[in-house]
Design a protein that fits this description.
Elements: E1 5-15, H1 19-27, H2 29-32, E2 40-44, E3 57-64, E4 67-79, E5 83-90, E6 95-107, E7 110-121, H3 126-148, H4 169-191, H5 197-215, H6 222-243, H7 253-263, H8 270-301, H9 312-317, H10 319-332, H11 340-348, H12 351-361, H13 365-386
Antiparallel strand pairs: 1-7, 2-3, 3-4, 4-5, 5-6, 6-7
Helix pairs in contact: 4-5, 4-6, 5-6, 5-10, 6-8, 7-8, 8-13
Length: 391
C-alpha cells in the first residue's frame, strides 16, 4: 500500500540584524533554544566539527496535542549565512518524510528569513490534523526569534566548505560493473539451488538502488557514494569465496555464521534457514563490513578534503534503497518462504508500519545502520591517529 499526503508550510519573518548575526540563532542549538518552542539538542557535529556543518545530527522534542514527539534531524546542506537544509531521518512511524529549508537574505542590514517545511504522512488526514498545530508553533517560535535576535552582533563565520566531486565517469563504470558481477553470482547460486542465493540477490538490488539514487540526484556527494560500492562488494565477495573454498583462508566469523545457518542440515524448516541466513547476512554487512568500508573510503580519498561527519546526511538518506531492495526480494520469494505476519502486513499496512513491525520482530536496520556509521567514524579516527588501516 502506498500513500502520498504532502503538507507544505511557508513562513517569513523580518529580523533587525544582518544574516551574519542571525545565522547562529537558527543553526546553533544553544541559541535556538532561546526562541524555539521545541527544545533542540546537538547529538553530533557536522563537517568542520560545527553545529551548522553538513552532516550535523540533532534531536528535536516537539510538544503536540497527542503527546511529545521526538524527531532526529540531519543537516543536508549548509551555506552560511544564506541557506540551511535539514531532514528528519527518524521520527513517528507514520511520518514518511520531513524537510526544512531556511533562507536568509540581507535587506538593508536586516534579515528577511524564509522557513519552508514539507512533510509527508503515510496515512491520509494526519497531515491536515498536524498542519495547523505545527504552523502555530512555528509562528510563535519565529516571533520569539525576532525579539531574541534583534540587534545581535555580527559574529565572524568560518569559511564555507564547498564540495566538488572528482572525475565520476570511471567510478560510474566501475560501480556498474559490480551489478553484473553480483547478478551473475546470484544467478549461479540460484542455479545450484544454494540458499545463499537470496542474500546475493538482495545485494544486487541494493547496488542497483544506490546507483539509481546517485544518478537521480538523491545524493549530494556522488563521488563518495560511488567509491563505497566496490568496498562493500569486496568484503562480501571475499568472504563468500573463502567459504566456498575458492580463495585462501577462512570466512570471517559473522559471515561464517550467516553462510553456515543458510546451509545447515537437520529438522529446521527451509523457510527458517532462508530467512535466518538472510538476516545474519544483513547483520554481517551492516555491523562488520559497513564501518570498515566507510572508514577506509574516507581515509583513502576524503580525509584531506572534509570531516568524516560530512557524509552522515547522504548515508542516512539512503535508507529507502534498502526498503526497496527488500520489497523486490520479497516479490520474488515463494509465498511459503515469507512469514505469515509479514504477508499480512504487506497486504494491509503502509511501508512505514511494515518497517516498524519488521524492525521490532527481526532486525532493526535503521538503528543498526546509524550505529555502523558512528562506529566507522571511530575506526577512521583510530586508524588515522595510528597510521594504520581500520580493523
Amino acid at each position: 500500500m502506498s500513500y502520498a499526503v504532502a503538507v507544505e508550510l511557508q513562513l517569513e519573518a523580518r529580523i533587525a540584524a544582518p544574516p551574519t548575526a542571525v545565522w547562529r540563532y537558527v543553526t546553533d542549538p544553544v541559541r535556538m533554544n532561546e526562541w524555539s518552542l521545541a527544545p533542540i539538542k546537538l547529538l553530533a557535529a557536522g563537517d568542520g566539527d560545527a553545529a551548522d556543518g553538513v552532516g550535523a545530527y540533532r534531536r528535536v522534542d516537539v510538544r503536540a496535542r497527542t503527546g511529545p514527539v521526538r524527531l532526529f534531524e540531519v543537516i543536508e546542506h549548509s551555506e552560511p549565512p544564506a541557506r540551511l537544509v535539514y531532514r528528519v531521518v527518524r521520527g513517528p512511524e507514520l511520518l514518511r518524510s520531513h524537510r526544512g529549508e531556511l533562507t536568509l537574505r540581507d535587506d538593508g542590514g536586516a534579515t528577511e528569513l524564509r522557513w519552508q517545511v514539507r512533510f509527508d504522512f503515510a496515512i491520509p488526514g494526519v497531515g491536515a490534523l498536524t498542519r495547523g498545530e505545527l504552523r502555530g508553533q512555528l509562528e510563535a517560535s519565529l516571533e520569539a526569534l525576532t525579539r531574541v535576535a534583534a540587534g545581535a552582533a555580527v559574529v565572524p563565520l568560518p569559511p564555507l566548505r564547498p564540495w566538488h566531486d572528482g572525475d565520476l565517469a570511471p567510478l560510474h563504470v566501475a560501480a556498474r560493473s559490480f551489478i553484473d558481477i553480483q547478478r551473475g553470482l546470484a544467478d549461479e547460486l540460484f542455479a545450484a539451488a544454494d540458499p545463499k542465493a537470496w542474500f546475493a540477490r538482495v545485494y544486487q538490488y541494493v547496488t542497483e538502488g544506490q546507483l539509481a539514487l546517485i544518478d537521480g540526484g538523491g545524493v549530494t556527494h556522488r563521488e563518495w557514494a560511488l567509491r563505497l560500492i566496490p568496498r562493500f562488494h569486496a568484503y562480501y565477495a571475499d568472504n563468500l569465496a573463502r567459504w566456498r573454498g575458492r580463495a585462501p583462508g577462512h570466512a570471517e566469523t559473522s559471515w561464517a555464521e550467516a553462510f553456515g545457518f543458510a546451509e545447515s542440515a537437520g529438522p529446521r524448516p527451509a523457510a527458517q534457514k532462508l530467512v535466518g541466513g538472510l538476516l545474519l547476512g544483513v547483520r554481517a554487512h551492516i555491523e562488520e563490513d559497513l564501518p570498515r568500508a566507510l572508514a577506509e573510503v574516507w581515509l583513502d580519498h576524503f580525509a584531506t578534503r572534509c570531516d568524516y561527519a560530512r557524509f552522515r546526511a547522504d548515508y542516512l538518506l539512503m535508507a529507502p534503497v534498502f526498503r526497496t531492495a527488500a520489497d523486490r526480494l520479497l516479490d520474488g520469494m515463494p509465498r511459503a518462504m515469507i512469514p505469515a505476519w509479514l504477508r499480512l502486513a504487506r497486504r494491509t499496512l503502509p511501508a512505514e508500519l511494515q518497517d516498524a513491525i519488521t524492525n521490532r520482530r527481526s532486525y532493526d536496520v535503521p538503528r543498526r545502520r546509524l550505529e555502523a556509521f558512528e562506529r566507522g567514524g571511530r575506526l577512521a579516527a583510530w586508524a588515522r591517529d595510528r597510521g594504520s588501516r581500520p580493523t
